[in-house]
Task: structure prediction
Amino acid sequence: MEHAELNPILRSEPPVPLLVVISGPSGVGKDTVLMRMRELGLPFHFVVTTTSRAKRPGELEGFDYNFVSKEQFEAMIANDELLEHAVVYGEYKGIPKPQIRDALRSGKDVIMRIDVQGAATIRKLAPGAVLIFLAPSSPEELAARLRLRRTESPEALERRLALAEEELQRVDEFDYVVLNPEARMDEAAGIIQSIIRAEKARIRPRRINL
Result:
């Protein structure tokens, strides 16, 4: 039994696929870092989150998000089609189960970006997941990023800033922290790759059962 728990690379077999969660406060650049990792052609399955919110300018269906109506999302909840879901700023967001199971079964590492609340849920459902907290260089930089978006009313922006401050206090719920300074996303992407390589070299690898 102990031998079976050892890293299969010791037997010249493929490594155990990982479930990697990229999280952090709103505005920290989760989407930007993951987009850069995609551009680099890294061999991961990037989970596409399903949301009921409206599409923002420049976002692509099936790439940034899967966009559905609130009624469609509620039907997915009723049919138990989601690994986790939450209401974020008044809109549903959730992770479809089949995406993750199919990718892991095929031997691919799975990377998902998710809010801090959702990351806590994933930790309970999949204790073997690797949780990475993406952090800004400073709270002031984060606030500046959110203000530059100009996609929300002043009241909504203040709510988002308050929530981001709360989310920054939950960093100790994660395995790793990666700083994502403005305009240095390659650095953050490189550190995440290093974390993944190190995790795949563990003597007894993390295993995911969903």
